[in-house]
Amino acid sequence: MRTRFHALLLLAPVAACTADAPSPEPSAVRSASDVTDAVLEAARPDGNWLTYGGNYAEDRFSTLDEVTRENVDELGLAWTYDIELRGGVEATPLVVGGVMYISSPWSVVHAIDTRTGERLWRHDPGVPRIRGRLACCDVVNRGVALYEGKVIVGTIDGRLVALDAETGDVVWETLTIDPNEAYTITGAVRVVQGLAIIGNGGAEYGVRGYVSAYDADDGELVWRTYTVPGNPADGFESETMEMAAETWSGEWWIAGGGGTAWDSIIYDPDLDLLYIGTGNGSPWSRSHRSPGGGDNLFLASILALRPQTGEYVWHFQTTPGDHWDYTAVQPMTLADLEFDGRMRRVIMQAPKNGFFYVLDAETGEFLSGQEYIVQNWAEGLDLETGRPTERPEAVHAEVWTLITPAALGGHNWQPQSFNPETGLMYLPIQEGWVERSEPPDWVFTDLAIEDHSYGPAVSNLGLRSRYGARDDAGFLVAWDPKAQEARWTVPQLGYWNGGTMTTTTGLVFQGGGDGRFVAYDAETGDQLWDASTGLGILGGPVTYLVDGRQHVSVAAGWGGARGRSGSPYGDAANYEQRGRVFTFVLGGTEPMPTPQRKRPANVPDLDLPTDAESLERGAAVYGRYCGICHGGGGGSEGAMPNLQRSTDIVHRNFEDIVLGGSRETQGMPSYEGLLDSEQVRLIQAYIVSRARETLAAAAETPADGDH
């Protein structure tokens, strides 16, 4: 493991991507130190979008001023780019030198000409599609990092890959995980002091969380910091891990412990601190994870580390002894705010548990906290320490207990934005309810990677969940972090919506699960403009200059934890969901493309079993291997194909698709070795039987105007 470190040289302008590519923006032809200065000063004077959150503070605040409250309704489509794949598109694009770089499902990276929307190159890292079974919440990727002519991305199967920004060719590649364990990478890489920083996911399947730093020049590991302690018999990696182990009990290491750092990573160059958000325990239930109690450090925490070494500096735990999957990996934002009559450097976060936190960024001191969404698991926060007071009845046991927020939290991975001029944080939030209970006889199941018994439908949670007791809802809220209150709230059509971006001209941009891309007044929440794309939008918008003109882009693509099999909302519910980038400019005149409308259910003329025993067996096999992606009875209304609508061609080639892997490049892996021909035939028979039921039910439903 190497210990040398780089000087503070973080980003370099990326060269044009081919001989026929556009020349860089005149204002973007800059030296490496110039780009570094732009990030350090939290400014984008050249109109680029250089890092995941726009700058090191990750405030997603733009100083570009061509698009204003007065003219935003003149935005029109400039171009679109077809991502081509199904699955959630959660990435924030990066833009530099006239080129956009964006990741998409299966960790595929695209380089796009920002003038025309034409593809410059596309790199598919070749993730084995069967590894998608280890992705609890879709095969998503939230973004890339730029460093000295390289584009660095993490892959679902746990690799870091550095690509030549001009050609898309691989420069280096390194494996960040043990491939025999159920790790994934879905988060965006951050580059800090020449180090590529990345965490991982997998706490639902029995892993131990950690964050790693790799030399961005060649991919060699520089340091690794674990987020939870391992087996004490093996010794501790540091005094910090020894201290953390005192807050655990039982044999927690058998189930990994969890605490995976699967999303938020942020850096403060003034304090020279790296902040990592950590996740839930493995299993979720602390009764089974740590039966003697304890806070279980560092689950559901913000960790401050030294970026050169990964050394622990401080922590703040949002949910001690997490029992509800209340992760603290949600986006964090740095800002300067006045508290008690003096300016403080603060870090702000709205994690899953329903409370908005403001902490001193240097020390981790709790400054304030308040509910930003309805929650019923805690009485409130201690005003001195920020520690929550749990409600005893919220610690569900064998009795079913109604809990909010649900597992997706009051706020999930969707990016927030902070406008220092309005003093408001623009948060996509959600109200969700779940009933929970714990099986008293639960034991950790050491599932095997090699036979692919892992999967979203087979995980180690240590509890049972059921939904539907109350309706869910989504909102956009403008949150005042000093007053700890909402200034305005906009109800949204559905629960699962996109990230936000705000501007110096008083605008907030956000996409929604209904397919609309909307501009709001940052002061009042009034809607000023919208465009309907027909595709559910989840990712964070960006804005940048092209030939001196301000452009606004957002990536659409329905999926993720909520949308993998669940339907988008409103008009978007009528269309097949495939990823696309939409770019707007004042006076844009390109026509909006119309997505493919959903087909009706189809019953092919095939000789398939129809007897009850065969259909019951088919339902059982389907439920284990297919349902998490394709929905109950094959009737997914989300990102994955609705199998009840499969064409006759698909049905004629059904076995070749399932066992032969003929659609592997589109995301459907081969199940050769997991299923046999007879099982595939039973699955197909079950799907066709459900399609027949769907058509019969539709025929019995009166048309509009009938009584």
Based on the coordinates given, report the CATH architecture of the largest domain.
8 Propeller
Level-1 CATH class name of the largest domain:
Mainly Beta
The global form is globular
CATH topology of the largest domain: Methanol Dehydrogenase, Chain A
Rounded to the nearest angstrom, the radius of gyration is 24 Å
Q: Beta-strand level of the residues, as a percent range?
A: 25-35%
Distance N to C terminus: 74 Å
Number of DSSP strand runs = 40
Calculate the mean pLDDT score and round it.
Answer: 90
Please give the share of residues in helix.
10-25%
* CATH evolutionary superfamily of the largest domain: Quinoprotein alcohol dehydrogenase-like superfamily
Total domain count: 2
Strand arrangement within the widest β-sheet reads 1-34-35-36-37
Unreliable stretches covering 5 or more consecutive residues: 1-37
Q: Main beta sheet, described?
A: 5 strands, mixed
SS-based structural class?
mainly beta
Set out the fold topology.
Blueprint: H1 32-40, E1 61-62, E2 75-82, E3 94-96, E4 99-104, E5 108-113, E6 119-123, E7 145-147, E8 150-154, E9 159-164, E10 170-175, E11 190-192, E12 195-198, E13 210-215, E14 221-226, H2 239-245, E15 257-258, E16 265-268, E17 273-277, E18 281-282, H3 286-289, E19 301-305, E20 312-317, E21 332-339, E22 342-349, E23 355-360, E24 366-371, E25 378-381, E26 388-390, E27 401-403, E28 417-419, E29 424-431, E30 434-437, E31 464-466, E32 473-480, E33 485-492, E34 500-503, E35 507-511, E36 516-521, E37 527-532, E38 542-546, E39 549-556, H4 560-563, E40 580-586, H5 612-625, H6 627-630, H7 648-652, H8 654-658, H9 677-700
Parallel strand pairs: 1-34
Antiparallel strand pairs: 2-40, 3-4, 4-5, 5-6, 7-8, 8-9, 9-10, 11-12, 12-13, 13-14, 15-18, 16-17, 17-19, 19-20, 21-22, 22-23, 23-24, 25-26, 27-30, 28-29, 29-32, 30-31, 32-33, 34-35, 35-36, 36-37, 38-39, 39-40
Helix pairs in contact: 5-9
